[in-house]
Amino acid sequence: MRVLQPFVNVMPSVLASLRAVVVAGVALLAPMTVQAYELGDFGQKWPGARTTFYIGMTGTSGSGIPWSQAFREAAEEWNASTRFTFDLSPEYRDPCVGYDGTESPDFANAVDFRSQVCGQDFAEGTLAVTAFFTEFNTLGGLELVETDIIFNQGRLFDVYDGPLRRAPSGAFEFDFRRVALHELGHALGLQHEDDGQPSIMTSRIGNLDSLQEDDIAAVEFLYGGIERCMAMPAGFGWHHDALDDSDCQILELMAGGSDDSAVDVWVLDVPSTLDVTLDTITSGGLDSVLLVMDEGLGIIAQDEDSAGDCRPRINQQLDAGRYYVLVNTFSSDTLLNCGSAKEGPYRLSIRYEHDDLIPLPGHVSFQGNNAGQAAFYGGVTADGGQTYLNSVRPDQVIDVRAKIDIDPKHQGQPGFVAAAVLLPDGEILVKNPAGDMVPYQPDAGVPIYQRRTLSAEESINVLDQLRPSDIGITSIEADFLVGYGVDSQPGELHFHQQPINLIVE
After folding, report:
1. Contacts of 478 (CB under 8 A, 6+ apart)
2. Which of 76, 114, 202, 376 could make a disulfide contact with 34, Cβ separation 3.0–4.6 Å?
3. Does the pTM of the predicted model rise above 0.90?
């Protein structure tokens, strides 16, 4: 739910509060002074480092450049110089919807000239105002949900480069594009700072007509929170770690807010569209929260108790791409009685399900020879190939299957295929020509399972009709690799980095 309160001061958010509170504020630009790298008090910013501005304002400057074109150029300069993206729509939207308190905001970023700031007079000397609505974010900071820019039509504007200039009347004729640059900085989440550094974000417009290093650094800091936290690689399977006072804090990750709770950040690369399930199991009374975020730190999913007994679980279809999985704890008591510990060990489980073998990225080789067009696929099935997954019960009968698209330059050549399994204790087993899994002997050279003339596509049955409980396995994680080589390159093996993961539990 959103509660709208235009033009009031914002308050610190609390991670435990899942209710969204929306407030509005203003940022002003007056003629002739200077300010630079200063973030909002609560690190307010756009989730995902992206938003759309509706720039269909009418009219043309005295120099013949339409106002909408000059505004577009300003937005594109931010796009070209920072990690943030302004998407630009030629449609017109009213920038004052929702600010008088009689109607809800339309959550559309708009720009226009007005004689007032949505019913309020411009302060003396003010060139433009950026008004905004924010919403408390689950992670303790403020998210921008709407920003609107209102230019003072009582001031004289044109579009030009270089130093400020005066009209024939002697009055200053202000450059619309550099004012738009400044106001778009506020729309990004930047404030004024009078520290004397060259910056488009100075409180008074000057001779600068482009972004400066300080402006760019501010945006990179505000939207680069993931770089302030150590991100750990997370493939499919189990990951063991703990939350403690040595971890990154939410306020560091989000570049603002008041939430000092510990967070672990895991990087998950999803190779194709998959149904993914994430769980955390904790001990020691840790009250854990699980989140999935996109590359811009926009929250895709979050959970605290879906698995029951205060265990978070997220079931989410994820498209191919990079995601961040966050293991966190609420910074204040929640409605659930899940313990009060803010530190402690946990196990993160990442499972998937798909209707086909999944891509296995990260092509590597023993000797570094190029086989750039080779591709690897694999998966575990318990239903004869109708579905592939990485988590099974001990009593299920499973197959581990793989497929290799052979690099065209190796097709038709005499060669071989190989298969191996990596066990939790570090032992490596390889499949021998008899089809048995035996300990890997590095001194014995490249492990060969089957010799064959390589076709365009090679299939490998790594395991056939195995019931883990029949061999005494009730709980285990194992990773499988497959590869191939050609006889013309002795000692070389082409394989993949992301393994075929199997969890038995």
Report:
1. 421, 422, 423, 424, 501, 502
2. 202
3. no
